Amino acid sequence: MVVGGFESLAMPPDEAAAYRAELEALADERVEFTGHLPVHEVSAVLHGADVAVLPFTAGVTTKSGALLTVLAHGLPTVVTDAGDPELVGR
């Protein structure tokens, strides 16, 4: 399951739509892309998850709300780029 949106300061709407389309084309039919969800639904998904992956192009830091959320749910977390050296190997 891919939870959340793709738009961010680092990825404007047109780029985000293209990136999502690319991922959807590569994904198995069993992968669900939810888009943005209400907080309680995100929490329910995270409680049922085994792992979280945060593929942020600008890196992940301890200021990341997404990182703090998945860690608060006790999930092992993989990031594509740890923008904060304190996060490496933790």
Question: What do these coordinates show?
Answer:
By secondary structure, the protein is of the alpha/beta class. It is 34% helix and 12% strand. It is built from 3 helices and 4 strands. The protein has helices at 13-26, 39-47, 65-72; strands spanning 2-3, 33-35, 52-54, 77-79. Strands 1-2 form a two-stranded parallel ribbon. Helix 3 (65-72) links the parallel strand 3 (52-54) and strand 4 (77-79). The chain is globular and about 35 Å long.
Neighbour order of strands in the largest sheet:
1-2
Described by the principal axes of the CA atoms, the overall outline is globular
Strand content: 5-15%
* SSE series: EHEHEHE
Mean pLDDT, nearest integer?
87
The number of helical segments is 3
Count of extended strands: 4
Q: What low-confidence regions span 5 or more consecutive residues with pLDDT below 50? A: none
Which class of secondary structure composition applies to the elements? alpha/beta
Overall helicity: 25-40%
The largest sheet is: 2 strands, parallel
Radius of gyration: 13 Å
Q: Give the termini distance in whole angstroms.
A: 24 Å
Summed up, what is this model?
The protein is built from 3 helices and 4 strands.
